[in-house]
Amino acid sequence: MNSLKFAVVFIVVLVAGCITPQAPKLTPLEIQSLQSREYEETKAVVFPSVLSVFQDLGYIVKTADKDTGFITAESPTNNTTGFWDAFAGIAVNSQTIATAFVEEIGQITKIRLNIVAKKSTSSEYGQNSKQDTPILDAKVYQNAFERIESVLFIRSSN
């Protein structure tokens, strides 16, 4: 009987160890708060500042329209194929896509950033898959906004 109890406890502990805790889900309002900042500058100053920061961070700007305030950019593609992937004939690539929406509301200009991690795999047999994962790490957005604020400080002091 003791060995049966031990086996049950062992299986429960083993299964519990395999379960990864899920990050808490953010509400849409929390996500917007994480991704947005407001500045007392004109759109004419803020828009090129965001463009400059994207380029400083290594992104390739794909589109930028000052009238709509929309910017799209992407990082260079990074081949992340590991040994076992290559052994199985699978290529793995990753990339980060970033967008910004800059809008002027009265005396304030608002920036909303959205950053997504893209992962794509392809096999020698023609099977392809893609996975897009929104990046919701506050540190990533804080870093981007701090850089934008530095550029804004320099531009507004001229």
Please describe what this structure looks like.
By secondary structure, this protein is an alpha+beta fold. The chain has five helices and seven strands; from the N terminus they run H-H-E-H-E-E-E-H-E-E-E-H. Strands 1, 2, 3, 4, 5, 6 and 7 form a seven-stranded antiparallel β-sheet that branches. A hairpin with a 4-residue loop joins strand 2 and strand 3. The radius of gyration is 22 Å and the shape is elongated.
Summarize the structure.
This protein has 158 residues and is of the alpha+beta class. It contains 5 helices and 7 strands.
What is the radius of gyration?
A: 22 Å
- SSE run: HHEHEEEHEEEH
Largest sheet: 7 strands, antiparallel
Question: How many distinct helices?
Answer: 5
Task: Tally the beta strands.
Answer: 7
Relative strand content: 35-45%
- The best one-word shape is elongated
